[in-house]
Write a structure and sequence with these properties.
The complex is a heterodimer of chains A (about 280) and B (about 120). By secondary structure, chain A is of the alpha+beta class. Chain A has helices at about 1-20, 25-85, 95-125, 135-155, 175-190, 235-240, 250-260, and strands at about 130-135, 155-160, 170, 195-205, 205-215, 265-270, 270-280. Chain A contains seven helices and seven strands, in the order H-H-H-E-H-E-E-H-E-E-H-H-E-E. In chain A, a hairpin with a 3-residue loop joins strand 6 and strand 7. Chain B has five helices and five strands, in the order βαβαβαβαβα. Chain B has a five-stranded parallel β-sheet with strand order 2-1-3-4-5, sandwiched between helices. The two termini of chain B are about 10 Å apart. Classes of the chains: A alpha+beta (about 280), B alpha/beta (about 120). The interface between A and B is medium-sized, with 27 and 20 residues.
Chain lengths: ~280, ~120
């Protein structure tokens, strides 16, 4: 750095010597300006380095905390699964009932930790998009078959209508999966007794548009403006004692928007909800 | 009888997998830290290594790197079984030569056992 300052000052002095009356003053001014510019550049670079370092440390911290929270939970789940498998002796019906309660509560904790981890990653920008070409139609079909047992147990029929010959999109399959998982999970979860979930997929301009419609408990008007907020759970949902971390919609919105799309819904208390999202083709 | 080396510091998992793998007619050797894991891999030449990443003494990444650098152990398939899911961890582990990367929170016990059986065919 010093060499550049001295070099440029000397250069200005030599050139100035030929054309200007007072080359020393010009050289002095150049020396001062170059030095100030270097100091500014140095400060900016250092602060940027510190920011990068802080972000790396945050990301590492989240990763370690999530590991420490998840480990005892997966240990517990595997031990419960082992006991329930009957590998080490027959389990009575009543015991199975209680093992199921243990497993469900453990699953709730695992889900919460996983959602918290995703939220922290979104907020610290530690969730980079790993984009590749994907078929949204195939992804939705895959998820429907994964959700089939849960839907069946909840007396819910899932119907999927897709326009034909839809183009593929360029997006992060893992993160888009999280979006659809959260919306589909909500749709099934908030149907009481029995009902139907209808998923539509089509092309709208330069985007793919999908909507997930349910005939569940719906969202009361006064709660609708808060629905995408972290940890917000509608009064309606609390009344029906439906489980959930209150993070799913926040995660879905953040991912869709980061991917260049939009997300929204229409709903009426007691009459179900329709959540929709768009994702750009390119 | 095929031998599996399980490098994992959680003793509850050592016990759980020990019981199941014995029932499935495998022999399981336990290592509770990375250093012991590397030593046992060299001396026992197992057919498969199940490796956790957050380990005392030597971290799992380092263990995997050393296993794959050593002529005597580089041919042993390694399944990484962890709850660590940092950005780039999967690519790093697969790049170092592991066969599979399993996040504990995402798999049931039976699914993990199936993956182990498949890796040993």
């Amino acid at each position: 750095m010093g060499l550049i300052i001295i070099g440029s000052t000397l250069g200005v002095y030599l050139i100035g010597n030929r054309y200007v009356q007072d080359p020393q003053v010009m050289a002095l001014i150049t020396l001062l300006v170059t030095a100030i510019l270097f100091i500014i550049a140095f400060i900016v670079t250092r602060s940027f380095e510190r920011l990068v370092e802080a972000s790396r440390m945050k990301s590492e911290f989240i990763s370690v905390v999530s590991h420490q929270l998840r480990s005892p939970l997966s240990n517990l789940r595997w031990v419960i699964e082992l006991l329930m498998s009957g590998r080490f002796g027959k389990i009575e019906e009543k015991q199975t009932e209680y093992f199921k309660i243990l497993k469900e509560n453990n699953a709730r904790m695992e889900e919460l930790v996983s959602d918290l981890l995703t939220v922290s990653r979104i907020e610290t920008a530690a969730l980079p998009l790993k984009k590749k070409e994907i078929s949204l139609e195939e992804l939705i079909k895959e998820l429907i078959s994964e959700f089939e047992p849960f839907a069946k147990a909840s007396n819910v029929e899932i119907e999927f209508k897709s326009e034909s010959n839809l183009p593929k999109i360029f997006a992060d399959p893992f993160q888009i999966r999280l979006v659809i998982e959260n919306l589909l999970d909500n749709a099934i979860r908030y149907i009481k007794d029995k009902g139907e979930v209808e998923i539509k997929l089509g092309k709208r301009g330069e985007s793919l548009y999908s909507e997930i419609k349910d005939n569940g408990v719906g969202i009361p008007k006064e709660d609708q403006k808060y629905i995408f907020q972290k940890f917000f759970r509608s009064e309606n949902v609390m009344r029906y004692q439906t489980q959930g971390s209150g993070l799913g919609l926040f995660i879905a919105k953040a991912i869709v928007e980061k991917s260049g799309g939009k997300v929204g819904f229409k709903s009426e208390g007691g009459k179900g909800s329709t959540f929709w999202f768009t994702l750009p083709l390119k | 009888m095929k031998t599996i080396l399980f490098i994992e510091d959680e003793s509850v998992l050592q016990k759980t997998f020990g019981d199941i793998l014995r029932q499935e007619s495998y022999k399981m050797i336990s290592a509770l830290d990375g250093e012991t894991g590397l030593r046992l891999a060299k001396s026992q030449k197992p057919d498969l290594i199940l490796l956790d990443l957050v380990l005392p003494k030597i971290h799992g990444f380092e263990v995997l790197k050393k296993l794959k650098e050593d002529k005597e152990t580089k041919g042993i398939p390694v399944i990484v079984l962890t709850n660590l899911e940092g950005v780039g961890d999967v690519d790093k582990v697969l790049g170092l030569g592991a066969t599979t990367y399993l996040v504990k929170a995402q798999y049931s016990l039976e699914e993990v056992v199936e993956k182990i059986k498949k890796a040993l065919i």
